[in-house]
Amino acid sequence: MVAARRVYARATNGRLGSGSIHDGVPLKSPPGPSVGIDRAVIAWAVLVFALLFLGLAPLYVLHLDLAKLNASTAGVAPIALIGILFTAYTPTIAALLVAWRWPSAGGVRKLLKQVTRWRVHIGWYLVALLGPIPLLLLADLIFVMFGGAAPKQWLAMPSGTAEGGMSALLFTIGAVIAGAIGEELGWRGFGQSRLQVGIGALGAAIIIGLLWSTWHLWPVAVPGGISLFAWTDFPQTYLRLTSTAVLYGCLYNSTRGSLLVVLVAHGAFNLDTAIVQTPASDVHTIPIIVAVLHGIAALAVVLATNPRTLTRHPVNLAEMVGSRRES
Prior knowledge:
The protein is mainly α. The chain has one domain (10-37, 115-321). Helix content is 62%, strand content 0%. It contains 14 helices and no strands. The chain has helices at residues 4-9, 39-61, 66-71, 78-87, 90-101, 107-113, 122-130, 132-145, 165-199, 201-216, 233-254, 259-275, 285-304, 317-321. The radius of gyration is 20 Å and the shape is globular. Residues 1-35 and 323-327 have low confidence and may be disordered.
């Protein structure tokens, strides 16, 4: 999380899309959206940002400059580094706390049960694992076609001997773990699954995407953090992550609420961005292209599915929550 510039420089029943009575998801959609927004989701969203600023508090108290930390962490108080690491897990921690203590939030066991829904068509796992690679390669190709320099290598597995050395490898591993486990129990497992019952999957994905984007831009709120960004980082972050929220919403609902597949997708994206190489001379243009391609992919999903469910086949969104929803 300290290496903010690196983050933002890239920052069924055997049939795809089918529903099933099994696992409590009947092949029938509920008759129209219910009224109101789940107050447990509001509590969760507030807690996500409260915990975020709790983790960032040492930066304010100790008057630390994030830009200097980005260059070197030597001599920095451990509490500051622990706090930054803690921020990466706030969506999941908030979800666990609200699920545990909030009335009608379903409990921790039902939240975690979504991770055990692994029996989905293998095609969804392939989409989750490999889907980002052609998109990222296409972004590189478009950049080169318009006169940009080609990368030295188009594909390269992260290793301790590659550019960046062991620190780059550890950063990649950390991003994969934090992105999957630290975030998805919150964004999709709690936020998307409950919010979509009231306002539909597309509306829920857009709201979650906006929250997700704002959360990812936390460095602008701490001393020295704004210097790590170009102005283009802001629109491309909102476009890419909101579009990704639509894609993950489709993935989540199409697999009958399999959070495991979404965990794989999120972790794989962070890994794939390290595998697909970009020219060292460019840190802003390709992320913009990647964001636009995500937007096109999300639009295609919206046009090809029912916006209420973001699936091609009817599913009961309320059944996927696994608990009574409080409006």
